[in-house]
Design goal:
Helix content: 25-40%
Distance between the termini: 10 Å
Radius of gyration: 25 Å
Strand order of the largest sheet: 3-2-4-1-10-9-11-15
Bound molecules: fructose -6-phosphate
Low-confidence stretches: none
Number of helices: 18
């Protein structure tokens, strides 16, 4: 959450370079944005509420500056709360990603010393604390002492009018440094740096970097100098454009057949390794957040039914309360599109300290999770720009399904299932089904609640379908295991309430149809998604029957429905729903 970009070098259009960087990092938060540059020994800045869009900057020429795109934690979405934040004398400018847990205590002390605060943020205490330390220390020591005083997981970047340095320090949120020819960069994400240079340093937790003519690294809290490790990132910069599509989410939905096929055809070796690690482990634990957590939950059903293997699942943020039973023989499989989700990264760090093996499934090369893991499986879904996860989920499911088939000694069968699922998704993306989904979206436009029911593997699918509807179309939706209906949930069902039934042609079919009958008897409007029609469905969207892989076209249909519903409900930008950020780096 929050995007950071800083530049110092031989170019004089620092503000433009930073603005471009922020445009690429906007997925990390889009409540507001700001830039501060150094001009003739003073700081000049601009701050704006809202998304960056095609903004231009009118800041004057400068060769050093920092910028930030905010996802609000402390304090509302206002210009005053927008980063960069400054001290009383406007000599220090600070960017921050994270939460200063002891900010109130620090603020009280600073106020007693006469510091005047203009924002409600936790970040502003950092600028004032640096100012305080600058009374007796140089800039580097002032930032180091300040950072050592912050509680919580934080990344900060600071600029000072009386110094030619940019200083960055971190413990938790990501910061990557770029080493170009006569120029240096700092950013929350390597993808914005590789546009300028392939030479990068991954700032590790409890490290401080000084960007001047070169980069000097120090350990924290002590300040001992350490040798920087420069990595050459041989990445092709993937330029994600919408092309013919109105939104990135739609484009990414349409990319899914290729994503599935890539996993089916090109990843056998890595899938074999992953399957072997699961086979050898004494206890496998999968964890993820949001959409990735539903992929992890789905894997429990997939490994059970296909490979007759029990694996455990936990939501990332809950896993730290369950880690006591991990041993060095356990295998941890964190799943994360971004590879930066703090609720995944944090428990992985703790598990590693216990000697647990980590096999990460992520979409982002060089991400924190990628670097933490002993074994890395890259999803290869390509850049996912829309804040809502679509193709990354389908890539996660394809990977887990094929791993389960591999573990069962039936890899070829798994490959065939994925190929068929990919073909069916291509079919669904053709006009006929799309028209049907558009009409259904119009029918559901005024719905205040939508319920989604599934059993077994389809329970995980129901939860994912529900999340797509909630976040894309901003409609209240709930996913339930069909068997739970009569334990309370059915009291919510009223006349006309839409209920989506995830109905694959498997052992759950008869029972989920009975559940559909029960809600229909109470007046619900029933939408079936699956290979087999049934008289209980008021509306039926057909998929092929591709065994466990049926979940894939079923989810694609729910993604499309969520998108079309967003359009008919007039959601301003389905790529960037309100209050969300693509990379969740605060707890
Ligand atoms: C839903 C969505 C989120 C993410 C979650 C985890 O569409 O995007 O629920 O799935 O924040 O993100 P990653 O996979 O990056 O760890």
């Amino acid at each position: 959450m929050c995007g950071i970009f800083g530049y110092t070098g031989n170019k004089t259009n620092a503000a433009n370079i930073i603005l471009d960087g922020l445009k690429g990092l906007e997925y990390r938060g889009y409540d507001s944005w700001g830039i501060a540059i150094k001009v003739n020994g003073s700081i000049e800045s601009e701050k704006h509420v809202g998304k960056i869009g095609n903004a231009q900057t009118n800041l004057p020429t400068s060769s050093i500056g920092i910028g930030h795109t905010r996802w609000a934690t402390h304090g509302g979405v206002t210009v005053e709360n927008t980063h960069p934040h400054t001290d009383c004398k406007k000599q220090v400018a600070v960017l921050h990603n994270g939460i200063v847990e002891n900010f109130q205590e620090l603020k009280d002390e600073l106020q007693k010393k006469g510091h005047k605060f203009v924002s409600e943020t936790d970040t502003e205490v950092i600028a004032h604390l640096i100012e305080e330390y600058l009374k007796t220390k140089n800039f580097v020591d002032a930032v180091r002492e300040t950072f050592n005083n912050l509680k919580g997981l934080n990344a900060i970047v600071a600029l000072y009018t009386k110094s030619s340095q940019i200083i960055a320090a971190k413990n938790g949120s990501p910061l990557i440094l770029g080493v170009g020819k006569g120029e240096l960069f700092v950013a929350s994400d390597a993808s914005e740096i590789v546009k300028h240079t392939k030479q990068v340093i991954f700032l590790e937790d409890r490290q401080l970097a000084v960007l001047d003519k070169k980069i000097t690294l120090y350990s924290l809290p002590g300040g001992t100098e350490i040798e920087p490790k420069i990595h050459t990132l041989d990445w092709q910069f993937e330029k994600a454009e919408k092309g013919e599509f109105k939104h990135f989410i739609l484009k990414e939905i349409y990319e899914q057949p290729r994503v599935i096929e890539n996993i089916a055809l090109n990843r056998r070796g890595e899938i074999n390794n992953l399957a072997q690690m699961i086979d050898e482990a004494r206890g496998t634990f999968l964890l993820g957040c949001g959409t990735a957590s539903y992929a992890a939950l789905a894997s429990v059903y997939l490994f059970s039914s296909i490979a007759k293997k029990h694996v455990n699942f936990s939501i990332g943020s809950e896993f730290k309360y369950l880690e006591d039973y991990l041993t060095p023989n356990s295998l941890l499989i964190p799943i994360s599109q971004s590879g930066e989700t703090i609720d995944v990264v944090d428990p992985v760090e703790k598990a590693k300290k216990k000697g647990v093996r980590v096999a990460a499934i992520t979409n982002v090369l060089g991400s924190t999770l990628y670097r933490q893991a002993d074994f890395k499986f890259l999803l290869g879904a390509g850049v996912e720009k829309a804040v809502i996860a679509s193709k990354s989920f389908i890539a996660m499911i394809s990977t887990l399904l094929l791993t389960a088939y591999t573990l069962a000694g039936k890899q070829q069968e798994g490959i065939e299932i994925l190929k068929n699922a990919s073909n069916n998704v291509s079919q669904i993306l053709k006009d006929e089904t799309i028209e049907q989904i558009k009409k259904l979206a119009v029918r559901l436009e005024k719905a205040d609640h939508i319920y989604v029911l599934g059993r077994g593997l389809s329970y995980a699918a129901a939860l994912e379908a529900t999340l797509k509807i909630k976040e894309t179309a901003c409609v209240h939706a709930e996913g339930f295991a069909g068997g739970e209906l009569k334990h309370g949930v059915i009291s919510l069902i009223d006349k006309g309430i839409p209920c989506i039934i995830i109905a694959p042609n498997d052992e759950t079919f008869d029972e989920i149809i009975s559940n559909a009958q029960e809600v229909r008897a109470r007046g619900a409007f029933i939408i079936g998604i699956g290979p087999k029609n049934n008289q209980v469905f008021d509306e039926f969207i057909q998929t092929a029957d591709v065994k466990e892989g049926t979940l894939i076209p079923q989810i694609v249909i729910s993604q499309l429905l969520a998108y079309e519903l967003a359009l008919v409900r007039g959601i301003p930008d389905p790529d960037k729903p309100r209050n969300l950020a693509k990379s969740v780096t605060v707890k």
